[in-house]
Specification:
The protein contains eight helices and 14 strands. It has helices spanning about 1-30, 35-55, 80-95, 140-150, 180-195, 220-230, 230-240, 325-340, and strands at about 65-70, 100-110, 120-130, 155-160, 175-180, 200-205, 215-220, 245-255, 255-260, 280, 285-290, 295-300, 305-310, 310-320. The strands form five sheets. The chain has a four-stranded antiparallel beta sheet. The mean pLDDT is about 85.
């Protein structure tokens, strides 16, 4: 009890000192009220000046020892070709393992985890050695990665440093332009991309709307198909089963259920001539070559039609060069968007 009383007394004395100090300062402020007002005004003025002159950033980058690289190839690139592109890029990056900074590189093709992701994307995750074992920062390594990727003509790559709170797998810049017609948005997109290409602070700005995805459009001769007793559903099912894939059943083996998927061999679905080897059954039971019932034409179009707040939209994504802030990048893009028709 005696030790507790000493401790309590010491706490009381400390609070008493704080109370005396506060009382003296309050008495001084009440006797000279103009000085505190001037201090507050000066503080507000300095805050306003700093807010307008300092660079703004949502979350600054942090040296976590990891650099993320997003890679994209032209629309329509298949998995096999994209895998070759990534293998070539990896061969250019592997020498960095012998330079004393990078300790590991992970490659992923395609770049996303979703079932809807196209095959024309890839990703690298570059792991650096601990801080005490290297002299280069993660930003230095990201700059070197971008230089290496810039020398590969078939792909576009962008290496970025993770922010302190993380921002997922996307690029630092995400800018949405919305409107009523995609044709008008495309004009604005082209104008903004052209301006961004002249800005050294914005790296590899790209859009999610490209009219370059190869498409094969098949028109069914319904009159002829009807005369032969072949329905459009039969044609669609044949194309889906052989050129795409279709789950037709499942079977159980030793307690595990497996899907039965119908699909033609890879060599039988690589060009238009393969349509002649696909048959559908007619009303009389005979087999009719699918090429006799359909006409094909090649076209190009966007991969998907994006929307934002129920409006047609195009999203621009890209990286930020060292020394350039997110606030500067967004201000530049907003100015370009306002100048666009």
């Amino acid at each position: 009890h005696e030790e507790r009383g000493k401790f309590t007394g010491w706490i009381d004395r400390q609070f008493g000192k704080v109370e005396d100090f506060y009382g003296r300062r309050l008495d001084w402020a009440l006797r000279k009220p103009l000085i505190p007002v001037l201090v507050i005004v000066a503080f507000l003025a300095l805050s306003a000046l700093a807010f307008t002159t300092l660079r703004s950033e949502l979350v600054p980058a942090e040296d976590q020892g990891i650099a993320q690289v997003q890679v994209s190839a032209p629309e329509g690139t298949g998995f096999a070709q994209m895998d070759r592109y990534m293998t070539d890029a990896q061969a250019k990056l592997l020498p960095m393992l012998d330079q004393g900074t990078v300790r590991g590189i992970i490659t992923r093709t395609p770049g996303g985890f979703g079932a809807s992701d196209d095959f024309n994307s890839g990703a690298f995750i570059v792991f650096l050695k601990p801080w005490e074992d290297r002299t280069k920062t993660t930003q230095d390594v990201a700059t070197e990665l971008n230089k290496v990727l810039a020398g590969l003509p078939a792909i576009r790559g962008n290496a970025q440093v993770r922010s302190a709170l993380g921002r997922g797998r996307g690029q630092p810049i995400g800018f949405v332009i919305a409107g009523t017609q995609y044709e008008d948005l495309v004009k604005a997109r082209d104008r903004i991309l052209a301006a961004a290409a002249q800005n050294p602070g914005i790296v590899n700005l790209d859009s999610d709307y490209k009219e370059t995805k190869p498409q094969l459009r098949i028109d069914v001769d319904t009159q002829r198909a009807g005369d032969l007793g072949v329905s459009v559903a039969d044609v669609s099912q044949a194309l889906q089963s052989l050129l795409g894939s279709r789950r037709v059943s499942t079977y159980v083996d030793r307690g595990e259920e497996y899907r039965v998927i119908v699909q033609a061999e890879e060599g039988d679905r690589v060009n238009l001539a393969n349509l002649a080897s696909i048959y559908v059954r007619a009303r009389d039971g005979g087999l009719v070559p699918l090429s006799n019932l359909v006409t094909t034409r090649q076209a190009a179009g966007p991969r998907d039609l994006g929307r934002f707040n129920k409006l047609r939209a195009i999203t621009l994504q890209g990286g930020i060069a060292p020394g350039y802030s997110m606030g500067e990048a967004l201000k530049f893009l907003e100015e370009q968007a306002k100048a666009s028709p």
